[in-house]
Amino acid sequence: MAPVLILMGSQSDWPVMQAAAEMLEELQVPWRARVVSAHRTPDLLATTMQQAEQDGVPVVIAGAGGAAHLPGMLAAFTTIPVLGVPVSSKQLKGLDSLLSIVQMPKGVAVGTLAIGAPGAANAGLLAAQIIGSSQPDVRQRVQAFRQQQRDKVMANAELELGE
């Protein structure tokens, strides 16, 4: 299985995007990460997506803050599913990033997740679900993960609270 590609606009995005890698590791889905800036290295962005196409990368997870053009620019170069993770910015707390990623023009789709690490973790989970649609072993691991989530809630469902 070709690895999921985790891209970010800056090395400073890694603390957020690491949550995607951790989820993929938990689900035993291979991944690799790289810094590619939509604004500072547009040539690298294009060649990275050409290589991803050649390598059979099944899903790209892209994190970006501020203007957050990276996920949309990546999607413009490929038909590989791109999942965008808005990274929180100092000025607007990630709302600017969220709106930039989610407001893609008709015909260039980017799946947009929540701002920050929760969105990155869910991007990893969603990437595994996409892969699991054609790979039963990955689907089974996702199902087991979801069952673990349910079991955790059910273990606490009968707590006496507030008495």
Automatic annotation (TrEMBL):
Substrate binds at residues 10, 13, 40. InterPro entries: PurE_ClassI, PurE_dom, PurE_prokaryotes. It is an enzyme of class 5 (isomerase). SMART domains: AIRC. Signal peptide: none annotated. Residues 2-153 form the PurE domain. GO terms for molecular function: 5-(carboxyamino)imidazole ribonucleotide mutase activity. Pathway: Purine metabolism; IMP biosynthesis via de novo pathway; 5-amino-1-(5-phospho-D-ribosyl)imidazole-4-carboxylate from 5-amino-1-(5-phospho-D-ribosyl)imidazole (N5-CAIR route): step 2/2. Coiled coil: none annotated. Its EC number is 5.4.99.18. Keywords: Isomerase, Purine biosynthesis. The keyword Nucleotide-binding does not apply. Transmembrane segments: none annotated. It catalyses: 5-carboxyamino-1-(5-phospho-D-ribosyl)imidazole + H(+) = 5-amino-1-(5-phospho-D-ribosyl)imidazole-4-carboxylate. GO terms for biological process: 'de novo' IMP biosynthetic process. Gene3D superfamilies: 3.40.50.1970. Belongs to the AIR carboxylase family. Class I subfamily. Catalyzes the conversion of N5-carboxyaminoimidazole ribonucleotide (N5-CAIR) to 4-carboxy-5-aminoimidazole ribonucleotide (CAIR). This is N5-carboxyaminoimidazole ribonucleotide mutase. It comes from Idiomarina xiamenensis 10-D-4. The gene is purE.
